[in-house]
Amino acid sequence: MKTLNPYITFSGNCREAMEFYRECLGGELHFQTMGESPLLKNTSRKMKKLIVHAVLTCENFILMGSDMVYDNGLVKGNAVSIVLHFTTEKEIKTCYKKLSEDGEPTHPLANTFWGTLSGCLTDKYGNLWMLHYSKNKKADIRNIP
């Protein structure tokens, strides 16, 4: 089976952001710094602290991240969102509250015309999140009629 995992690039604050996501989403978090990597052992002290690869492993998904930015720099935009599906109303409400701290709750949690409890937010790191909960499997956003 194939899986899809979001990979977020940060600008020097990957550790902070991924620890925040662990607080919000739970899971097990692992980091590899530039200093631990065989790629660039001879680099500045500041560079050695940058995250080459971070992995947050949760029960149903994996979220990855890095401080390694391409030569053209980090460009934040609204073309990609991270979608989370929840199994209880309590889970979605708790996660929405945590993820939106110091961010921007762009669409508060609300019941939708297609039968889900959904909301959107931009977190304090500029990443877009879409949260969904459905009691009715037919109303789930993943199911297109």
Structural account:
19% of the residues lie in helices and 32% in strands. It has 145 residues and is α/β, with parallel strands linked by helices. The strands form 2 sheets. A 4-stranded mixed beta sheet has the order 1-4-3-2, with helices on one face. A 4-stranded mixed beta sheet has the order 5-8-7-6, covered by helices on one side. Helix 1 runs antiparallel to helix 3 (89-99).
- Biggest β-sheet strands, sense, barrel: 4 strands, mixed
Element-level helix/strand string: EHEHEEEHEEE
Could you estimate the helical fraction of the residues in percent? 10-25%
Rg over C-alpha atoms, rounded to the nearest angstrom:
17 Å
The backbone outline, from C-alpha atoms, is elongated
Query: Which secondary-structure class do the elements indicate?
Result: alpha/beta
List the total number of helices: 3
Largest sheet, order of strands side by side?
A: 1-4-3-2
Strand coverage percent: 25-35%
Query: What is the number of strand segments?
Result: 8
Instruction: Name the average pLDDT.
Output: 87
Which residue ranges are poorly predicted, with pLDDT under 50 across at least 5 consecutive positions? none
Write the SSE topology.
Blueprint: E1 7-9, H1 14-25, E2 28-33, H2 45-48, E3 51-57, E4 62-66, E5 81-86, H3 89-99, E6 104-111, E7 117-122, E8 128-133
Parallel strand pairs: 1-4, 5-8
Antiparallel strand pairs: 2-3, 3-4, 6-7, 7-8
Helix pairs in contact: 1-3
